[in-house]
């Protein structure tokens, strides 16, 4: 709803901005007319005091009791009991009494007896069947031992029993045959075990022989190494002998030169021909008796020594380098 009148903001004399004329007065009349119409409408549509007295002035709720209280304008009150305090918030079951206990909001308890809702059954034992109930309440039935009689069996049960007995006898014979076969297999297994034991012993003997062969091979290898060492030493000895022979030959040559010089000296000194000949013979071949040790101190002796040493080396062990152990001939 909009405002019906707008303020003119009248100004005092001598101002002529807000003259008291037809226009301004008509504005005021129009606004008063609108307001008058609204007052009339409100008066005709308003509720009466009697009607207002029955209206709700306030509403309250009591949680502990579940009661809603409504207060009217005239002060009267109306209460509504929701019975909320009777709502169950928990329950328990007691097996011994077969009761359900409901705990309500207000703490009170309600007891519900379920025994009337359960049909009681009683199980009675007979001559052939016995009943028992376990801890969980389950019922089981068993047949009593020795309680089955001929009347409880089908009419031709005896014939079937005989057939089954015959089958059992055949099974017994088959079992005996199987036992005999098993015994034979056992004996064969023992024989195989004995043969395997012998094979194992033979294998161990072969293993021992192989070990001995390995030891002999190792010994042969050691002997070969010793032979190789001896060969090397013999080669070194031969080399030394050859060097010694060469030195002896040089010595013989030197002695021969000395003998020649001596002979020349004897001749040069004009000794007698006989003495010169004797001395020359003594230094050349010895055997004159004119000089001590002439038989081992003459040119012929040194020549023979050199010759003997030289011929002694012919066909002997000559050094020709070294031979690897792997290249030695097998023993």
Describe this structure in words.
This protein has helices at residues 22-45, 49-53, 157-268, 273-284, 299-312; strands spanning 56-62, 67-72, 77-81, 88-94, 99-104, 109-113, 129-133, 139-143. A 3-stranded antiparallel β-sheet has the order 1-2-3, with no helix packed on it. A 3-stranded antiparallel β-sheet has the order 4-5-6, with no helix packed on it. It has a two-stranded antiparallel sheet with strand order 7-8. It is 50% helix and 14% strand. The two termini are 140 Å apart. The protein folds into 3 domains: 22-81, no CATH class; 86-143, no CATH class; 160-322. The longest helix has 112 residues, at 157-268. Strand 5 (99-104) and strand 6 form a beta hairpin. It is of the alpha+beta class.
Beta strand %: 5-15%
Largest pleated sheet: 3 strands, antiparallel
**Poorly predicted parts:** none
Task: Classify the secondary structure makeup into a structural class.
Answer: alpha+beta
Count of helical regions: 5
**Strand order of the main beta sheet, please?**
1-2-3
Shape: elongated
Number of strands: 8
**How many independent structural domains?**
3
Spell out the helices and strands N to C: HHEEEEEEEEHHH
Biased composition (Basic and acidic residues): 195-204
Region (Disordered): 177-258, 270-297
Biased composition (Low complexity): 184-194, 205-251
Quickly list its features.
8 strands; 331 residues; alpha+beta
State the gist of this model:
The protein is an alpha+beta fold and 331 residues long. 50% of the residues lie in helices and 14% in strands. It has a three-stranded antiparallel sheet with strand order 1-2-3, with no helix packed on it. Strands 4-5-6 form a three-stranded antiparallel sheet, with no helix packed on it.
